[in-house]
Amino acid sequence: MTKDNVHVQVGNSIGEISDASARSEQTADTSVPAIEMVDLCKSFGKFQAVDHLSLTVQQGEIFGLLGPNGSGKTTTINMVSGLSVPTSGKVRVMGYEIPHDARRVRQILGSVPQETALYEELSAWANLDFHAELFGIPRKEKKERITKILELVQLLDRKDSRVGTFSGGMKRRLALGRALLHGPQLIYLDEPTLGVDVQSRRAIWDYILSLRDQGRTVLITTNYLEEAQALCERIAIIDHGKLIAVDTPDHLKQTYGGSVIELETATPSASLDAIGALEGVKQVKQDGTYLTITTQGITNVVPQIINIISQEGEIRNISVREPNLDEVFLRLTGTALRD
Amino acid sequence: MLQRLSYDLRVIWACAKKDIKSALIERTFTIMSVFLPVNFLILMSLFVLGGGQAPTAVVMQDTGPYAQQFYMAMSHAHSFRLQQATAAEANDLIQAGRIVAVVTIPTDFDLRIRQNQPVQVDVQVNNLNTDFTNDIRRAVPLSITSFYARAFPNVVTVVPREHDFYSQDTDYLPYLSVSIMVVAFMLGALLPAGTGAAREWEKETMKELLLSPASRWAMLAGKMLGAFLMSLASVTLVLVVLIVVVGIWPVHWGEMIGFSLLTLAIFIALGTLLGTLLKQRQPVTALALGTSIPLFFLSGAFGPISFTTPVVQFLAQLFPVYYAIVLQQHAFHNFTLNTLGTGVNVLILCGYALAVIVLATIALRRSTMAH
Q: Residues of CATH 3.40.50.300 domain(s) within chain A?
């Protein structure tokens, strides 16, 4: 699934709600980055959780923060939301500096924490009502906004049910709705689809993509590379608190991944050296009549390879496998993402 | 400025309302918060009622007027719970461990008194418990003196002339009940406040609060208000039991209400502080229950703390329970239990309240979800 084929169906609802949130929107200035981290450090005693991290997230983009467990993602996010104070360095959110303007930042930030932080003993409505009070949503608008949000996340018919009775996917949807209730400019989602079924995951992806269409900035941390690929315009990979790479998923794959070309020939090839000498070819392996060629990134060597092999004889079969983010991640961090 | 204040008030009320709703739904901790203080009151009262006077059988081998007067003197000694029995019944009772002592008034009691001859009143004591044994040892001679003073006023020439501080004596139970009430208030405040604060951390909902633009003092005030309103239920129950069931009426109603609210404020702030620091409901509950009993015994529950040793007095004065007991004894019985005066005692309690509220605010401000 790619971000192009996700059906966006909820944009207008969010738009109406966000328009009503004048206070939250008034600071919007598209020239400033949504998030700007400069030389950011956080240490706990001798442990350096975040190590001189510099990163900029532009307004209106969906940005993914990837890293193995303990890599410093959550610590970074905590500093962005003002929950944790940096040891050194600077964080600015929509131009507001943390921790000095932490309160203003919280006003324009919508958060969906990994643990959802919902009051399970209360109803869906009571959860949103409490959130509305905490964020000072005008009383006149409160009821209408909560209703619209519940409609948006398809939980209006369960508004009076206790959250404790909801499935994982419903809780995630409610948490997302709650994060949108006060019309934030920046939305942060920590593992938004962790533990939810495929159907709910699809719905959540739809919501997230619709946020981008509304011009909102979305920051996601995820352990699902497929999710990052589907949603994020840019990805930052961090490990041991350091920024390893930041780019679009395609460019990361081009730079750090490798296409795999698999060929079946009529007779074993005698042109392995010629193929290996081609620019962009990283590795050539032959097993009988089967040839496996690994390239550096996505290159245009396929026609040249076909040209060389076809001079020797018939090509019975050929397939090209795209590089994936798993390979990129493995290469950059030396570990699989879910380790 | 006004807008900000209005927003803060909304946050305070929202937090209070939400905590009350959550507590009412999660019944275990609510039941604990409401009924534990009342239980405490009942248990301690039973302990006092059960242990006040020594059960004693009197074998009346003589039923003459002097023997009757002696029996009356014993019954006025405030140390015996008397019952008349035959020698065989009394023997069975003491053998069965049902009574502490058997007092036998001999057959020639009246005769020998009339003839000015010495009389031996046999006292058989089950000296298993030193407290009761000493009560018997003190009370029997006291009864004899009392008997002589009434039967032969001309013979007994040394009599006490008592000057009382207070217009009436206060029995053990009314005095103790007020102390128990203060400890019950302490529990009734500590439990809902402590568990209410710890619940946010335990269930990881604290992030919802910390990620909002609401000021932390407003959240804290809201949580305290919620706990305060919930604690009123247990306080009302305790007061109803004390006033209606036990029958102890306060002399100064206004003081009683004011001191009760002040006591609640301190322990609600302390509970919120504990909940914020411990972040788990079970340790908060254990600590609240664990500290209430030592504080009860330390803070002058059974009598004025000034009658005890300097070390105990020093320790007692470190804790607000002591000052709360002093003030409530004044409100209920018009007692003055220390030389500080009501105003200073109130100020000390206010100081405690302020200090704990400040500490709780600092604890919440310094709390992060840091990983």
A: 3-253
